[in-house]
Amino acid sequence: MTIELLNQVSRQTFETILLVGGPVLLVSLVIGVLISLFQAITQLQEMTITFVPKIIAVFVTLLLMLPFMAKVMMGFTKNIFESIPLYVR
């Protein structure tokens, strides 16, 4: 396995991680900031106000993005399995 091949596999791995985890993390971040802004304006400091909307938004995002995430992960896995002969040289 050459350095170039290792760099390519590492890059593909990080791209896949960002594509699969990015939408959920982004939605969680946006909802968290909006809830924090709401809490700062109203001076309500209840933890469930933060937790419940965020977890609902994450689950909805997972349900909506699951086909895309599965397609990305299957493509990455297929690419890894097809490239096994290159790795053992």
How is this structure best summarized?
Helices cover 90% and strands 0% of the residues. The protein contains three helices and no strands.
Share in β-strands: under 5%
Our count of domains comes out at 1
The tally of beta strands, per DSSP, is 0
State the distance separating the first and last CA atoms. 6 Å
Count up the helices: 3
Query: What is the overall silhouette?
Result: elongated
Largest sheet: none
Helicity, as a percent range: over 70%
Radius of gyration: 19 Å
List segments where confidence is low: pLDDT < 50 over at least 5 consecutive residues. Answer: none
Q: Strand-and-helix sequence, N→C?
A: HHH
Report on the structure:
This protein has helices at residues 3-42, 47-82, 84-87. It has 89 residues and is an all-alpha fold. The chain has one domain.
From the structure above, extract its key features.
89 residues; mainly alpha
Write the SSE topology:
Elements (H helix, E strand, L loop, with lengths): L2 H40 L4 H36 L1 H4 L2
Helix pairs in contact: 1-2
